[in-house]
Amino acid sequence: MRIAGRCTVFAESDMIHKQQMGHKTDDILYGLCQALVRNYLNNVALGKEILPQVVFQGGVAFNQGIIKALGETLDTEIIVPPHHELMGAIGAALLIHEEMGTNNCKTEFKGFEVSQTDFHVSVNGKVLARWGGHCDRWEGAAAG
């Protein structure tokens, strides 16, 4: 199902129209995923050759509909690495590490094991936000 994807107003209007015509929600949502992939390829990736193997990173890689639409559009398997949502931060850290080594910079920072660290933001002892894992532990702990 084709959904207009150049503008969110047109996409929303198109989705409402499809819903009123009786199309299934899953089909409408997948049409939106396809529109987002088209928009990405026609704007962000314009003029760039995308060849297999395609690695998809970032938070959007949690969206299975986008992965499916991207794979179908490019006619290739989409590889989503573990910790894809952290790849940008890891890459930035590696670039800084490399630059510091090249420029003989020193630091006192020794690093830490991310998976064993409880990241949270609190004000006056009240936890406002948590991150660092994909389990119910984070959901329940923030409420308490």
Number of domains: 2
First-to-last CA distance:
44 Å
Assign a percent range to the helix content: 40-55%
Summarize the biggest pleated sheet.
Answer: 2 strands, parallel
β-sheet strand percentage? 5-15%
Summarize the helix and strand pattern as letters.
Answer: HHEHEHEEH
Give the helix/strand class: mainly alpha
Summarize model confidence as the mean pLDDT: 78
- The CATH C-level class name of the largest domain: Alpha Beta
CATH architecture of the largest domain: 2-Layer Sandwich
Keywords:
4 strands, 144 residues, elongated, 47% helix, 2 domains, disordered C terminus, two-stranded parallel ribbon, mainly alpha
Description:
The chain has helices at residues 8-20, 25-43, 64-74, 87-102, 136-143; strands spanning 54-55, 78-79, 119-123, 126-131. The model is unreliable at 137-144 (pLDDT under 50). α1 (8-20) packs antiparallel against α2 (25-43) and α2 crosses α3. β1, α3 (64-74) and β2 (78-79) form a beta-alpha-beta unit. With 144 residues, it is mainly alpha-helical. The termini are far apart. It has two domains: 8-85, Nucleotidyltransferase, domain 5 (2-Layer Sandwich), CATH 3.30.420.40; 115-144, no CATH class. The protein is built from five helices and four strands, in the order ααβαβαββα.
